[in-house]
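Quick entry, no commentary yet.
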Amino acid sequence: LQATIEQSKSTITEKEDEVATLGTHISAKEKELEEATAVRQAANDDFVAAEKELVTSVGNCERAAQALAKGLSLMQIKGKLRIPKKVKREIAALKATVNALIGAAGIDAESTKKLKSFIQQTEAQSEGSNDDLNLHQPQAKQVAYESSSGGIVTAIEEMQGKAEDTLSDLRKKEMEATHSYEMVKGALEGEIKNSEDKLSTAKSSNGA
């Protein structure tokens, strides 16, 4: 009986050490999972904000191109005295739309420079014109507008393409990051579950 008692004491000590070791291991893995989850959440928050900005940029590019096309169509309608006033209104609307692109996500410095230059040109044409000039020299006005708007339409289309590519890459990276996190999460949860099962077994053996 004494030998059995001594063996039981040794088993109890061994199981207590095992319980302590497993408890420490589980705590470490839970902390690791918590930190990984926090990093993933922060990255996802950044992704959501960046995605929203890029979607807005793409939409603004589309609206700017449409506004330019509308203004150009007005210029191409000949023989109507009120066309210049309509064009000015279109230019004012276009300015607001183009301004929204400046500094937007996915729009680089060179593109921003082109946008600012176009706004300055259209403002100068609008402010420097008058009814007599528009009435007697409609072709000059039309050619000037077609020249400036044609170039900026191409530039805006390029901006839209770049923004869409950036958005696509951003979404792809987010998907890959999410997949990587799920793999890490699954592995950690598996380790924690396995350790918890061992801990439960160790405690039961210790109690016996």
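second:
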Amino acid sequence: TTTIGSVAMMISAIIAGRLVGKIKIKVSMAAGILMSAASMMIYSVADSINVFYFAAILMGTAVSFTCNMPISVLINEWFADGKSGTALGIAFVGSGAGAMVLNPLYSYIIETYGWRISFRAAALCVIILLVPILLFVKEKGLPEDEKRSVIRNDNRLSLSDVIKIPAMWCVFAGFILISLANMAVLNHGVPYMTDNGVDAVKAASFISMGSAALIIGKIVLGRMIDRLGIYKATVFGAIMMLVCILSMWMTGIAGNGAVIGFVIGYGLGAGVATVSMPGVITYMFGNCDFGSIMGLFCTTGGIGGILQIFISMVYDKTGNYNIAWIAVSVIATVTILLYAFMLKPQRKKTLTN
């Protein structure tokens, strides 16, 4: 179901991006909210695995129409002066803060009333919390000169232009790899530490500490983007993700002393996958078809989530995580190099030379 949902999210992100400017973002988000609630209700009555698969497709699509892509577009419109980093950091704090509040609530409902009721409660939360918020969403839209530029398409990079640029694919790969590293930590951190003698409750608390640090880290990363620029902030975040991976590896080898490095590294590094992405697109491609390009880049999270299954495969083959963490450390290092050398402004003239 996770894989199917990720594939649906990747495909629908591109569609959602192409719809930017053609339909109101409010309409797109409203559709996503309804699909999300419907998916939860379908999960609650599912009586076969195929029904779960269908609900996963619906939920993956709902995420694309409701979360990262439309939020990034809205903030990019409202903070077009180049100071959108802090706003993005605050906006994307919601994923961590929501998990901290709602996960214990859903766990209580599951233990008390069962998992089917928990899905229905989740659907109710989606409607009660998101529909009123959506009423306050205000779209700024493009200035008149940019609208004319869209019509004439002069000196404006379109999605078809961008996919011809090699540097774009290198940075695109960087976002895939940092998402892969992020998912590796979340999905395999606890079993890795418990395999190396760390108490299960303590191991879970370490991951929770990292998630809590991410709430602050996203805002800090956003401030860094505004103060230092997208290039320096993104490279710094990628370096901190490597610190996170190495510290987790050392936590399993040398004990709990390395957990501080893990928490700080995760807090400042994992946010690159969301907070940096809109700024990277604007920095690299300037006056561009932001919605369509953002839709393409939003697929990186799903691809990274699918690819992290190789860690499970390595564990199944070797019986431990050591080789897997070496591979993830290499991946994090490659991510730094991709951002450091390929994250550069690209202009339409580079395509016509």
